[in-house]
Amino acid sequence: EAAAVEKGDLAALDKIWANSEDVTVFESGHANYGWSDYRNSHLAPELKEFKNTKYAFSDLKVKTSGNLALATFKYTLSADLGTRRVDTGGLGTAVLEKRDGRWQIIHWHSSAPRRAPSPQPSPKK
After folding, report:
1. Which end is more exposed in the chain, N or C (fewer Cβ atoms within 10 Å of the end residue's Cβ)?
2. From the CB of residue 9, how many other CB atoms can be counted at a distance below 10 Å?
3. What is the CATH number of the domain that holds 16?
4. What number is the average pLDDT over the span 60-89?
5. What is the DSSP letter of 39?
6. Residue 83 within any structural domain of the chain
7. Which helix (H) or strand (E) holds 35?
8. Cα(92)–Cα(17) distance, integer angstroms
9. Whether 113 contacts 90, CB under 8 Å
10. Is residue 79 part of a domain?
């Protein structure tokens, strides 16, 4: 997943993700339903805009049960987006299903850390 994202390789991502309408993706408060929805309306446009992308996973933990696997992880993402540099990271969960002998992602949920609250003005006395 990380190497394919860094390269903007949608063909490789097509093999990693289940190419079906039962895929669900929740990213930072937004939902996509179906691989084609996520691929075409979120992922492809985003990857097209990113340059010099670095995407990495850490603290990966995987549990399997039959033909299902649950993975939890931390991620970091850095990329040039137009004239600015994006540096972010967060936590994620992926559910994979073994289909035709291959593990494929059927659900993805990632979230970035909460932003610190804006400072509040001191109450007037």
Report:
1. C
2. 14
3. 3.10.450.50
4. 96
5. I
6. yes
7. helix 35-38
8. 15
9. yes
10. yes
Percentage of the chain beyond pLDDT 90 is 80
Residue in the block written with tokens 């995407």: 55
**Residue type for position 52:** N
Cα 86 to its chain centre, rounded Å, is: 15
Residue 45 lies in a domain: yes
Closest CA relative to residue 104, chosen from 57, 69, 60, 64: 69
- Residue 17: CB atoms within 10 Å: 23
The pLDDT confidence band at residue 116, using thresholds 50, 70 and 90, is: low
In a domain, 124, yes or no: no
Q: E-assigned strands of the chain? A: 24-27, 30-33, 50-65, 68-81, 84-99, 102-111
Residue-range definition of the domain harbouring residue 23: 2-111
Residue 114: pLDDT above 80?
no
Tokens coding 83: 């004239």
- The pTM assigned to this predicted structure is 0.85
Q: How many domains does the chain have?
A: 1
From residue 64, alpha-carbon distances to 40, 43, 68, 78 in Å are 30, 27, 6, 30
The three-class DSSP label of residue 91 is strand
